Hints:
Helix 1 crosses helix 2 (38-51) and helix 3 (118-136) packs antiparallel against helix 4. 26% of the residues lie in helices and 25% in strands. The chain has four helices and 15 strands. By secondary structure, it is α+β, with helices and mostly antiparallel strands. Residues 95, 97, 106, 108, 202, 234 line the site of one cobalt (II) ion. The site of one cobalt (II) ion has 5 residues, from loops.
Amino acid sequence: MAIRIKTPEQIDGIRKSSRLAAECLKYLEQFVVAGNTTAFLDQKAAEFMKEHGAISATRGYNGFTGHICTSPNDVVCHGIPGPYTLKDGDILNIDCTTVLNGYYGDTCKMYTVGEVSEEAKKLMDVTRECLRIGMKECYPGNRFGNIGYAIAQHAHQHGYGVVYEFCGHGVGVKFHEDPEVSHIAQKNTGKRMRPGMIFTIEPMINTGKARCKIDKIDGWTARTIDGGLSAQYEHTILITDNGCEALTDVYGDF
Ligand code: MF3
Ligand code: CO
Ligand code: CO
């Protein structure tokens, strides 16, 4: 399938939705404390989106029940908000996708609960660097494979596993559009980026093996196969005439 080139009107709508998704992640920071459940975070996210005239893209998506994804510690992605109670030392990913006036904005980042281990801090730092390194490959004429190539090089330098079972994706008019943006790829492969394309980069990096297993009971929660920690950061990226703009990078905090 061809990769959609967004119109100025679509870009404007996606920009607004992306800003709101980023604001939602910022709003949730105050609630990521020991003793709170991930269901409580979900409730706060639902309230925030409603107040701002948006809905969640994830709630009802193939039966997913959360307004956000909440993925602690060894959960790679797609954690379902529920009774899990945050405790000191946890790391947590919150992934927020908003639909505002029909347009999608998609972003995620890591949170810490109290003091976390040096191992966790380093994993989060390197994962954030992976997102930034991927963004450096975003300019007209470059190939999508170079994003994954650069990300994997960096993660592997630190001995980390790069999740290959979940990818970034075109986004904006629909939740998941073409192309798939792999976080591990061969150099100079894939289609070329063009101004007006909008897609996510969302590397999931593991301290141990790259492999994931999906929870047999809930059918969603993806965990590391070896129980190692996993981290993820995500921005919605617009290709511009001379580079890119991260539409969800409202605070510059990752
Ligand atoms: N927001 C996730 C992404 O970055 C997708 C979550 S799908 C869900 O693509 F169903 F798990 F919510
Ligand atoms: Co995404
Ligand atoms: Co997301």
